[in-house]
Amino acid sequence: MLKTSPDAGKLSRRRLLTATAATAGGIIAPPAVAETLADVPPREPGDDLTAYSLRSPYVQIARIPEAAPGQRNVDPSVAINSKSPLDKFLGAITPSDLHYERSHSGVPNLDPSKHRVLVHGMVRKPLVLSLDDLRAMPSISRIAFLECTGNGWENWKAAPDNVTVQHTHGLVSTHEWTGVPLSFLIDLVGVERASTWMLAEGDDGAAVARSIPLTDEIIAEGILAYGQNGEPLRPAHGFPVRLFLPGFEGNLNIKWLRRLKFGDQPFMTRWETARYTQLQTDGKARQFQLKQDVNSVITSPSGMMRIKAGYNRITGLAWSGHGQITRVEVSTDGGTTWTDATLTGQVLPKAQTRFQRDWVWDGRPVKIVSRSTDDKGNVQPDRASFIAQVGTNALFHYSAQQTWGIDEAGSVRNVLA
Amino acid sequence: MLKTSPDAGKLSRRRLLTATAATAGGIIAPPAVAETLADVPPREPGDDLTAYSLRSPYVQIARIPEAAPGQRNVDPSVAINSKSPLDKFLGAITPSDLHYERSHSGVPNLDPSKHRVLVHGMVRKPLVLSLDDLRAMPSISRIAFLECTGNGWENWKAAPDNVTVQHTHGLVSTHEWTGVPLSFLIDLVGVERASTWMLAEGDDGAAVARSIPLTDEIIAEGILAYGQNGEPLRPAHGFPVRLFLPGFEGNLNIKWLRRLKFGDQPFMTRWETARYTQLQTDGKARQFQLKQDVNSVITSPSGMMRIKAGYNRITGLAWSGHGQITRVEVSTDGGTTWTDATLTGQVLPKAQTRFQRDWVWDGRPVKIVSRSTDDKGNVQPDRASFIAQVGTNALFHYSAQQTWGIDEAGSVRNVLA
């Protein structure tokens, strides 16, 4: 399960030492403190333990809630996101309070003791479920990513070069989700065999509602989630209960879930007719493009960072709605040649996977880019092929390779190539 | 990897329906709202999105910092713990701010730009490393539990019956840890072949320091961790860098790591002579009992809860420092007969694993208890066998089965049996 190559250490050490020798300094410094126990500085008792482990005041890490000046960010006419700072993350799990947020009319403050979920339509036994009912049922837990359908949409046409990876890719996060298997609920209410679609409706002001096809994959993997990273959902993520469909576009994962209705055709809500459709090159709109494709991005070095010549560690995140990441390659010459990166954590299906690669930068301008492959054989396309195939009318499901340009000064910038 | 039984849903549904019929009510309620879209209540925009996703005001979840009245909890003469509320957790990952805390002189507030780690002793090339140095090196991420050596120690002799599972077992948590493989550092500094022990020293007021044997397992799995659940360590957990040794007693996982010294024998610090030794039945003390054994506990129903007759879902957590949990059994007759529980998440080695079992309680007094097995064949012992083997002089490494008694009123109490 631990997929790190046993050779990674030795290779890296050799490169580190080479890099250090080359730059005459670097990480190999002479010991600056004595090598004895006598060098222990005076030490005093620290702070009391508390009810919560808070962050160090030295750590600055936050999302950026987006709204135009003078607008509340609940205004449905503006983009309403809080993007995750991928450039500051370590590992693959997203910190509990930094999972990206996206909503269409702000975050409702729901009382869990009053909240109910209606399950009806083509079922033998319609039910109204309280949160206590749901928590009494069998549960499942799963670590998986969630990605906004619109993640990366700035790059469809002409994103500026002065953006960070938080801006370009910050609408994807990975948590452990816990709740009732959708299959259990389908069995409990006795969904009719003829039912092929399910309407899920949220209890937010925008009443977001989507039609979900009852595929084998969705029935097997769907969760009515009430837990997130070990605790009850937080309000921005759908408290007290949301739908979680691993690998499927964020908008389908209805937050503040209020209702599931089973039917035999899609319900054609405005969220799948007027919105969340994909405009094709021929001017027609494609509906129900639901799966998040294989994707990856280098998070360091990334947009607006500044690096120094010599040894640099390239690291980033890869994910696929189709399954498990099997390979990430990195190019430091704009996609001409590629080297396998090391996957540095536990590789889980439909979860973000961290990769890294050693790199000694010679100080000349370069372009760095990553390319991921999943266990279904999907390979992340370069931007030119991607655009050639789907055009630039679309807004959603952007998953082309992300190129970062680095100039002589070491400044890293977004490059649409 | 997903170890949930495909039969779990069907079995549970039948039992739920049976239980419901028996109690004439329960979760199967008639629909209380109309089955049409017209029943949507008036809805208003919710709260703005923010930089952090905070908890719902309806969710009460916190640790309990322990200190006697009038004492600061940095006082080394008192137990200094903040225990995790296992009874309120969902899934297996511990919420980022609720990982248990344990320290011997409070939490130092270290400036990462000034912090250094000295690596010296029996090495070819002693080094002083900054946090930037460490973060430039190859990294590894791993989801694993950490458990205080003293977890459960109240139960060695005579714990009161009016305690919660937060009190009895709250010194174990599971996070994703990210940092530099210990093997890489050993290679980098060129540890001599004759070195068999490593001293790790913290930068806290108590200067906690421990000798760590350089076993194959520790070299292969040890991490100089700077990341925790996706973000920099929090101060209470060792910011900016700690040692993380999956499966080994918490006290070895030195926080605020300041120094690693390699030698050819244990360094005999006070933390392994005066403390953290295990007093045997014959009055002799056992040193270096380092591994956390196979363990489990039912977290619901658990101490101080009150349940109702009829359908109840039993759920809990299991973990082993020796490897992966392969089986958890649950008894509802005080250990006379056992039934396999379902493992409800992704089962990872040396990580907490959630289990559950359906149960219909007939309202008569019972004792419920869980028993876990790991992939090395270790089986969690009952308390009588455990005490018979190790006596009651000991303080650490308590891992016997936890029994909860339930009386006619449905009150759940700690039982030492």
What does this structure look like?
Chain A is an alpha+beta fold and about 425 residues long. The first copy, chain A, is about 15% helix and about 30% strand. The first copy, chain A, is built from 7 helices and 24 strands. The first copy, chain A, has a 5-stranded mixed beta sheet. In chain A, strands 6, 7, 10, 11 and 12 form a 5-stranded antiparallel beta sheet that branches. The longest helix of chain A is centred in the N-terminal third of the chain and has 16 residues, at about 10-25. Chains A and B meet through helix 1, strand 1, strand 4, strand 5 and helix 2 of A and helix 1, strand 1, strand 4, strand 5 and helix 2 of B.
SSE inventory with pairings:
Two copies of one chain form a homodimer.
Chain A: H1 8-23, E1 64-65, E2 81-83, E3 101-102, E4 116-121, E5 127-130, H2 131-136, E6 140-147, H3 165-169, E7 172-181, H4 182-189, E8 197-202, E9 209-213, H5 216-221, E10 223-228, E11 231-232, E12 242-244, E13 257-263, H6 270-273, E14 278-279, E15 285-286, E16 295-300, E17 310-319, E18 325-331, E19 339-340, E20 342-343, E21 353-361, E22 366-374, H7 383-390, E23 403-406, E24 412-415
Parallel strand pairs in A: 4-13
Antiparallel strand pairs in A: 1-2, 2-3, 4-5, 6-7, 7-10, 8-9, 8-13, 10-11, 10-12, 14-15, 16-17, 17-21, 18-19, 18-22, 20-21, 22-23, 23-24
